[in-house]
Design goal:
Length: 239
């Protein structure tokens, strides 16, 4: 009875995990990949679609290569932009749980979306000022394959530029949420089994069950592994 109540509470916590909008003044710590467009020199306004596919990013709506004298916060040297259309889409070739980029525009109202397979998972509407220092925007804690920014309104010339696209993490990744290795997931039985083994008990599908170091940081038994498991179970990020 005690266990059942505990699991119900944990399942509620797991379901509460949700996408988090990122807005900050500097790039994310320890990204696995970074595109700053300094690896090549192209004529101004060259259309960019899949030239960065090998690095993990494509632009389903073409953007234009640019280099302007003005540097914005987190936007230096080469960058890409749109003018028009007023929608800018950064598509990742692999689903991500963490990605951001720097954006520059005249004072605008921007709609920012995390999407997966063309479906919007999360939508926020923000104000962005010219030379706004908090211009690094993105999402984490949800699995998505595109960030789409739409300029809903602006003062002055329309258009947006972006630079410093960064995503992923060099931090260790988590184990499968199919902890008991029975092929079923997400499944509350995996939580039951994990907590059982964590408490020194048995696992329902031994010897196919996983290890207690769920977040693979080398520490176990550790409450942080339970928190990571619940986050990932709820669709969130490993760390
Ligand atoms: Ca750059
Ligand atoms: Ca399972
Ligand atoms: Ca492990
Ligand atoms: Ca651990």
């Amino acid at each position: 009875m005690k266990t059942a109540t505990g699991i119900a509470a944990l399942a509620l916590i797991a379901c509460a995990a949700s996408a988090e909008f990122i807005r900050r003044s500097s790039p994310l710590e320890s990204p696995a990949a970074m595109i700053n467009f300094e690896d090549r020199t192209l004529p101004r306004f060259t259309e960019i679609t899949n030239q960065y596919q090998a690095q993990g990013v494509v632009f389903p709506t073409p953007v234009q290569w640019n280099r302007i004298l003005n540097d914005f916060p987190n936007i230096t040297g080469n960058r890409v932009g749109t003018n028009p259309p007023f929608s800018l889409r950064v598509r990742f070739t692999q689903p991500q749980t963490r990605a951001a980029f720097a954006i520059g525009c005249n004072s605008s109202v921007l709609q920012v979306r995390a999407k997966l397979g063309e479906q919007a998972l999360e939508t926020v509407v923000i104000n962005m000022a010219l030379f706004d220092p908090t211009n690094v925007i993105g999402f984490e804690g949800v699995t998505f394959d595109e960030i789409e920014v739409t300029q809903l309104s602006q003062s002055g010339s329309p258009g947006m530029i972006i630079d410093t696209i960064h995503f992923g993490s060099t931090q260790p990744s988590c184990d499968s949420i199919d902890f008991n290795g029975d092929g079923l997931f997400p499944d509350n039985q995996d939580l039951v089994d994990f907590l059982s083994v964590f408490g020194g008990g048995a696992c329902s599908n031994d010897p196919s069950c996983g290890d207690l170091d769920f977040n693979n940081d080398g520490l176990f038994p550790d409450n942080e592994d339970i928190r990571s498991l619940l986050r990932v179970f709820g669709g969130g990020a490993c760390t």
